[in-house]
Automatic annotation (TrEMBL):
Annotated protein name in UniProt: glycine dehydrogenase (aminomethyl-transferring)
Segments of this protein annotated with the region Disordered: 1-24, 476-496
Entry keywords, A to Z: Oxidoreductase, Pyridoxal phosphate
Reactions performed catalytically: N(6)-[(R)-lipoyl]-L-lysyl-[glycine-cleavage complex H protein] + glycine + H(+) = N(6)-[(R)-S(8)-aminomethyldihydrolipoyl]-L-lysyl-[glycine-cleavage complex H protein] + CO2
SUPFAM superfamilies, A to Z: PLP-dependent transferases
EC number(s) reported in the record: 1.4.4.2
Length: 513
């Protein structure tokens, strides 16, 4: 156990008396913009505009916009204070399993902001963007080499978008063989990411669930039992969502191919094997690669992301446009599917140049050996956490080595009065973002931890010591430490389910008194 002291003396667990301002030291309370400013005033003086004609065809605003007016210092302080309430990878270890929250090197950020790349426009002449096309071609070469597959589509914007891309190529290939009316089933393992069945259903495939073996992995024999002339593909993650390597993956691929289907590999967990194992060698036909999870580009959060999809020779002809090809001394972006077997265009433009630059800078910075070492370190970190907690916390599939993430269940909490959710909330009081909880569904009360290769041993040791302290507290009967948590966060425990289903999106001023 780590001693709960610091260079400044003992760390007090003061559950804090109320303060006049609502602030706790430098952790400042922050009201809404409407509670700070006034909708009838602005922070700057602007002369009334001269009358102008409208081109909005009667759609112009009829009433005031209703935004609160703030001065520049007030505005800056508001958003800076809000930003301090967000947990981020720049603030501390982010143990979300299945998310790979790794450090984003600042050198990559600087590269992405270079003039000539940051100000590119997707419609400018290709002759003026040869450097950008060279970046795309080089990134494509790295990706296809790492997976040992011949083609890649760079245009998908995220993992789920990549899944859609790969499965559209599979659907097109099946239709080209005249089997579109009969091959309409996709096999999905029990432990799959939720986007897998969602993607299959979106494309009008039926989903057939394949159960896992007692050890959390898939058996080729079980897959064969679910195959038939109606099966279009299997969607399998390797390593899987339980943090385990699918050892029979080659046999599974062979079985699916023998039945006339295709093998889609969910590449969300590529960070565990990049530079060490090549999915093309497994028999994969299509796989998306999350650049944020494996190659350190920032998580999109609904913003700019990238989920390139690699293809086998069987599916390469059906990949979407646009794609880069070399013509003599120049590169060109092929933007039209006419004259090809491509399923067409997946998205308006070629993808996110900023993400391509960050990912390629990461690859070039580490090199092939460095990427492999990163994968090995990610696996080592997860197993270090597993070995350090296995005497207190239970694993649903036995005490066995994992890949880049370790899965615990809630069996060790039985009889304590503490749930997985309670345990996760108590982590917030300790300054940590909780791990992924209740996923994968094959583990009751799942707690999925992924430290990535970014963390130092000292960082991991403090995290482990914190979880050990919490676990020992739960087993000792200190349920109130958990059921009331978090106590020290800017906001206490909220009902996330109710908030998601019945969000309050409009501010209403409370009546005085």
């Amino acid at each position: 156990m780590l001693d709960k002291t610091s260079a400044l003396g003992p760390i007090e667990d003061d559950r804090a008396p109320a303060t006049f301002t609502g602030n706790r030291g430098l952790d400042q309370e922050e009201p809404l913009l409407f509670e700070i400013g006034r909708v009838d005033a602005t922070g700057v003086d602007i002369d009334d505009a001269a009358p102008v004609g409208t081109r909005l065809g009667g759609l112009e605003r009829k009433a005031p916009i209703g935004l609160a007016g703030l001065t520049e210092p007030e505005t800056m302080r508001h958003y800076v204070r809000l930003s301090r309430k967000n947990y981020s990878i720049d603030a501390g270890l982010y143990p979300l399993g299945s998310c790979t929250m790794k450090h984003n090197p600042r050198a990559n950020e600087k590269i992405a902001r270079l003039a000539g790349f940051a100000d590119l426009h997707p419609l400018q002449p290709q002759s003026t963007a040869q450097g950008a096309l060279e970046i795309m071609q080089t990134l494509a070469d790295w990706l296809t080499t790492l997976v040992n597959m011949p083609a890649v589509a760079l245009s998908p914007k995220a993992g789920a978008h990549g899944e859609l891309c790969g499965m559209m190529a599979i659907k097109t290939a099946i239709a080209a063989k005249g089997e579109g009316a009969t091959r309409n089933v996709v096999l999905i393992p029990q432990s799959a990411h939720g986007t897998n069945p969602a993607t299959a259903a979106l494309l009008d495939f039926s989903v057939r669930v394949v159960p896992a073996a007692p050890d959390g992995t898939l058996r080729a024999e079980t897959v064969r039992e679910h195959l038939g002339p109606d099966v279009a593909a299997i969607m399998l993650t390797n390593p899987n969502t339980c943090g385990l390597f699918e050892r029979e993956i080659i046999e599974i691929a062979e079985a699916v191919h023998e039945a006339g289907g295709y093998f889609y590999c969910d590449g969300a967990n590529f960070n565990a094997i990049a530079g060490v194992a090549r999915p093309g060698d497994f028999g994969v036909d299509a796989m998306h690669i999350n650049l944020h999870k494996t190659f350190s580009t920032p998580h999109g959060g609904g913003g700019p992301g990238a989920g390139p999809v690699v293809f086998s020779e069987r599916l390469a002809p059906y990949a979407p446009v646009p794609f880069v090809r070399r013509v003599g001394e120049k590169l060109e972006l092929v933007e039209h599917a006419e004259g090809t077997e491509s399923f067409g265009r997946l998205t308006a433009f070629h993808g996110q140049m900023g993400m391509f630059l960050r990912a390629l800078a990461y690859m070039l910075g580490f090199g092939a050996e460095g990427l492999a070492q990163g994968s090995k370190d990610a696996v080592l970190s997860a197993n270090y956490i597993r070995a350090s907690l296995r005497d207190l916390m239970t694993q649903p599939f036995g005490d066995r080595p994992c890949m880049h993430e370790v899965l615990f269940d809630d069996a060790w909490l039985h009889g304590t009065g503490v749930s997985t959710l309670d345990f996760a909330k108590a982590m917030i009081d300790e300054g940590y973002h909780p791990m992924t909880i209740y996923f994968p569904l094959v583990a009751h009360g799942a707690m999925l931890i992924e430290p990535t290769e970014s963390e130092s041993k000292a960082s991991l040791d403090l995290f482990i010591a914190t979880l050990r302290d919490l676990a020992q507290s739960a087993k000792a009967g200190d349920a109130p430490r958990f059921t009331g948590a978090p106590r020290l966060a800017p906001r206490r425990r909220v009902d996330e389910t109710r908030a998601a289903r019945k969000p309050v999106l409009r501010w209403e001023e409370k009546a005085a008194g």
